Amino acid sequence: MNDTAHTLSSSRTLWELLDRRAGLTPDRPALLQDERVLSFGELRARAERAAAGLYGLGVRPGTVVAWQLPTRIETAVLSFALARLGAVQSPVIPFYRDREVGFALRESKAEFFAVPGLWRGFDHTAMARRLGAKGVLDAYGTLPDGDPAVLPPPPAEGTSVRWIYWTSGTTSDPKGVLHTDRSLIAGGSCLGHALRPTPADVGSIAFPYAHIGGPDYLVMVLLYGFPAVLFEQFALPGALAAHRAHGVTIAGGSTAFYAMFLAEQRRQPPGTRAVPSLRLLAGGGAPKPPELYHEVVREMGVQLTHGYGMTEVPMITMGDPDDTAENLATTEGRPPAGMEVRIVAGEIRLRGEAVCRGYLDPAQSAAAFDAEGFLRTGDLGHLTDSGHLVLTGRLKDVIIRKGENISAKEIEDLLHRHPAVAGAAVVGLPDPERGERVCAVVEQPAGAPELTLEEVASYLRAQGLSPHKLPERLEVVDALPRNDALRKVLKYRLRERFSPPG
After folding, report:
1. Start-end of H helices in 331-438
2. Where do the TM regions start and end (predicted)?
């Protein structure tokens, strides 16, 4: 971390961080979208005017404001306006619908709800009315506006809960995760410390800004003073033009994003780079198959660094671009100073400033932390002698077959090496004799001959997989079910689809 970034990382609040960055480099670009450019100084000024407009509507320090908005400059402005006021923000992923949104509004007791109106064919305003939301605001293009002279002083401390994020709901309701400005600044500082961007870099936010990764990335942008390109809808090859036009040097988001960029690179003429300016792919979310790292570096000519984070702890570890290929391929990087990682019976537990304050539900908070204040992640892994973290699966993702524990991730990593596999997920299905049986679900690249279970088993044996771990069932699907944030595979849907009836 350079001296300026280190100094800025001591900011008590997100508003203080923006204010200090705008004072240092007011004219440098901060946010880029299509033909629009917003400088750091303009971001501060527009956020203050929006804060004044919100203040005129009744938003005060501590007022809970939910927002369900796409990744747009206006969304970032609104979020910083709320940070200026010291309001409590409850971001909601824009693809969520009545069940998840209604739950978030009820549990957070939101007094205002900002929506994008009619967006991508769905009427968010009508949904808000249907759910009985209070203070509905259409914040897609026009934000509230007012005179900053009416504003009270900005919040003076960053340790109060001012953020309620939502874990992805599967078969149960999502959890409301409580964060502070300081926990988000700590997460973004970790990301920046690992990636070491410079003012000459151009980043990109291709995932929902309402995801915990949104402020994580913006904190890094503010600390290091470089711009980020915002993508309201990210799809390849369509987004390549904006990457090229803005000269993006750092891109990514998650494992699925790496695979998408790699697929586009393979469509280019020999000797042509899909994004000539790109030097680094970086992200987190779902674990990364080691072979994917080697394919990206070899075929795209860029570095790939992968990290480990979750809604409860936005950045836990991150790969270092200068680390060895072995560590970058097979680990999630190392934790920064201040992040304590403890392995208890194989489970990863965490303590540090970037860790959330708990959940909206006190009972969930009590169950999530151990007696020493470490968060129980539910992830399995181990630390190497060099301090790198290796993920080996989830507590709920261990398949128990005839009393033997089988790691789904181990099989998935091997399947990803197969040339006829574009994506793979391994799940345990109920079996009256074995307890669970191993089921591999794969998507294949276009034109590949359909795989058979016999071929897959033979391939895995040749890769050295123990016989008791071999899949007993193979399902080939057009596309694995994924969430809309970081494109994680939704394994519960696979279990629901392929489990025997009853």
Report:
1. 362-368, 408-416
2. none
| Beta pairing partners, 343 | 348
- The token pair at 132 is 């009985």
Cα gap 310→408, rounded to integer Å: 19
Q: What share of the chain is helix, strand, coil (3-state, %, to 5)?
A: 35, 25, 40
Residue 38's Cβ-side half-sphere holds a number of Cα atoms within 13 Å equal to 20
Nearest to 245 by CA among 233, 227, 220: 227
DSSP, res 469: G
3-state helix/strand/coil string of 4-62: HHHHHCCCCCHHHHHHHHHHHCCCCEEEEECCEEEEHHHHHHHHHHHHHHHHHHCCCCC
CA angle centred on 279, ends 303 and 316, rounded to 5°? 55
Local structure of residue 169 (DSSP, 8 states): P
Which structural domains are found in the chain, ordered by start? 3-182 (3.40.50.980), 402-498 (3.30.300.30)
pTM for the predicted model, two decimal places: 0.85
